[in-house]
């Protein structure tokens, strides 16, 4: 142990250090009473055991080391901690075959806890949830990220409604992390060659249950002052700083895995920021196995997975070619690749010298498997990347989807945890979730309604306290602060909304008719209240104006008790909101929300969603589960606002207040049950991780190992196969097709001329587009052998049921190899016309 504690921990309490440095406390609340007992105020203020341990007095610790009740509780918690760590979990069995595998998950942000602020928003929270799930499921995943001296900004709102930004310093000594110490007893550092110098990166680790998150920072004493600041600020600085951070994450991250002695099978890129790792990985393979660069590229690509989160091409990071070349110069000399070939990897059109270099394109080319983050986003991404697969039908562009999910134990309330535990047991989120819907659905109406009441009461309480704190900090008078104690009402419909204040999220759609909204909230018989939070990017003046509009609305005298705008949206606030609201509102402009996860966080707690049919909600929504804005086409602001008000006025409020003799709104509770049971397991990160494992990681592990075996024999073969295809493909063409009807079948015969390409290097198919209800078809054709007297000509033939007209079918020939990911790795295709 090498982490900073200002004094000695008494021997009987030594294990407290381990517990405090294991971030499992962010989701396992067994330990909460322990920390509270140590120091109640420190605990309440920070909810960070590491901060409690660092700041508690020696006297208090000495006292506790003689307190038998405390020691008993500690022993109990340690036993449960030990069991969690030692008992093999659900994934072990799945990845069991052969050598143990390691999957490295690269992300620019990790949002594990507000006490560990290395995130800006949804991307980071997803990465944090991912690591926690990997721990719960015992998946062999390690995280790779950067340690920033300043995380994302903290928000305050001044008395005029203007957002102010603060950048508190992340003191590594007070974060729950430790330096990684090597076998030689020294702090592990990674050296990275940059033009004219070597930059040293320090390696830190955070322990997340059973998994590890490794972090790099450049604040080493040996570095020059400029380089020491590279990891100063998340998304800070200009284009060059951004590129340098991405070099550190990708190239430095890969080198770090080597320095840690981890043999990595799969690299998973959470968004394109880490794309440079594919180059670093190929170079180290090339050196180790003595292959050419392109053989190494083929070998390692099978083990790379890219998850894209961007719904518009403008969202891809783009760099000037000269800037990229400055940092790639030495690398290219090392691996023997020309500047032009290299730049082509980051361009839509590799031959267009004016195109900037985009990491998303490099990631797409350098990863055999690619996915978007919801069904709709998968479709949007296939369109975004279609030009990289010319002449391919859009549905076959090799971008699949895995819809995001949330780590439920991080977002459920103590009340909901209790209810789920009674129905489904304590182990419910430690494995597959298929059996949960039926189990949780047995809860009766009264129980579900009482759950809502308890959670709403807690949220009202929390909101009042947090508001008082903000008002006090802002310097408001005692009278104003006192009013905060009376805002909201624990018994009325509570709407929640929190998001980044940016144009596409349309945070003010609900405010488009302020009078109508005010009438709705202040209705005497059926009132409602609204809690809002969100940050605008420091340079986004429009976003700040939207915050101000909500600020002013919430300060109208008649609305002061009904609308609360809370400052500083972060994980802690998100947890409280998603636990206590009755309805979560989300109004992005379709299809700009790649997935969206905040709405998933209310599911296990019984909150209902009222949301645009975008991202995850487009695939989750059914009338039995909640409410939808939009028609599933592009968004129309005016129509969406009207629909939002109408839903609230005509459906949400009446349903919530339709009470029976026992005071229970039966129809409302029915929806709660349906949404909890059907959606919470389906949009949990358990389902997400299982999909990545089965559909992406296992195929990647098998493929990358096969390619590497026998001195990379297969990788060399694939590389040669592709080179020959590329050189010869222009020769490929068809003769004229013969179609005959034979009974109720069509028989197609097609002459195909392949030049020097061997017939087993291609696949010939009959392709039909989707038509009405009929899906697209690609029917393999069989070779009947060479055409007599022709050079490299073959007849291919197929029989198909004559259900569709023969004109629907077009013969096509495409590159084929049983061991390649297609068409991702070889996209040659030729059509008969
Ligand atoms: C969940 C979460 C997000 C992401 O929410 P979206 O609905 O995907 O925008 C952002 N910030 C915080 C603090 C969160 O907890």
From TrEMBL:
<dbReference type="Pfam" id="PF11897">
    <property type="entry name" value="DUF3417"/>
</dbReference>
<dbReference type="GO" id="GO:0005975">
    <property type="term" value="P:carbohydrate metabolic process"/>
</dbReference>
<dbReference type="InterPro" id="IPR011834">
    <property type="entry name" value="Agluc_phsphrylas"/>
</dbReference>
<protein>
    <submittedName>
        <fullName>Alpha-glucan phosphorylase</fullName>
    </submittedName>
</protein>
<dbReference type="InterPro" id="IPR052182">
    <property type="entry name" value="Glycogen/Maltodextrin_Phosph"/>
</dbReference>
<comment type="similarity">
    <text>Belongs to the glycogen phosphorylase family.</text>
</comment>
<dbReference type="GO" id="GO:0008184">
    <property type="term" value="F:glycogen phosphorylase activity"/>
</dbReference>
<feature type="domain" description="DUF3417">
    <location>
        <begin position="10"/>
        <end position="115"/>
    </location>
</feature>
<keyword id="KW-0663">Pyridoxal phosphate</keyword>
<dbReference type="InterPro" id="IPR000811">
    <property type="entry name" value="Glyco_trans_35"/>
</dbReference>
<keyword id="KW-0021">Allosteric enzyme</keyword>
<feature type="modified residue" description="N6-(pyridoxal phosphate)lysine">
    <location>
        <position position="601"/>
    </location>
</feature>
<dbReference type="GO" id="GO:0030170">
    <property type="term" value="F:pyridoxal phosphate binding"/>
</dbReference>
<dbReference type="Pfam" id="PF00343">
    <property type="entry name" value="Phosphorylase"/>
</dbReference>
<dbReference type="InterPro" id="IPR024517">
    <property type="entry name" value="Glycogen_phosphorylase_DUF3417"/>
</dbReference>
